[in-house]
Amino acid sequence: MRERQQLPVLGQPQPERADAARNRQKIVDCAARMIAERGAEQLSLDEVARAACVGVGTVYRRFGDRAGLIYALIDERERHFQAAFLNGPPPLGPGAGPEERIAAFLRGLVDHVFGQEELFLLLEKSSPKARFTGPYAVYHTHLSALLARARPTAEARFLADALLAPASAGLIHFQRTERGLTVEQIKDGLDDLVRIVWRGSGLR
Question: How far, rounded to the nearest angstrom, does the alpha carbon of residue 15 sit from its chain's CA centroid?
């Protein structure tokens, strides 16, 4: 059976030897268990190495830093989400108009982030490079492409960042815990934002 390839967004080296793949999975499983028991804030690569019975150097070589390990932990759900908006059925996938696809993407992104909120919060607290690379870079490219097709004269890269900002884990967490908003209300608010951008940009 062919070994499954990882998405480039996750930044994991490929292909892997069988022993390297086993070590990687052991490390990821230990990290997931530690997060379930103690929370993501306490995640330490040194402790993960000890729990997985591998050398600390192995963990650092394999993942680089804590952000790299977080990418590995969100990998499976990230694959499914990316497959849905790149190749899935409309309106999230191809086949719908740009506004409809962007609205569906942002709603899907809120669900995706909320489903792994603790990990995304931890990722956003990592270095700025980690915050805006990885999955974020794929989301940004996807939105930029939709915006550029709809209005070639717009600064699509800026608008993509502007639309992604309200879907960050930190803001979603704040809106839920401090503002008292539900996830559905947050998604409805993003729908309103997309409509405002469309009308204000003359896209209708």
Answer: 22
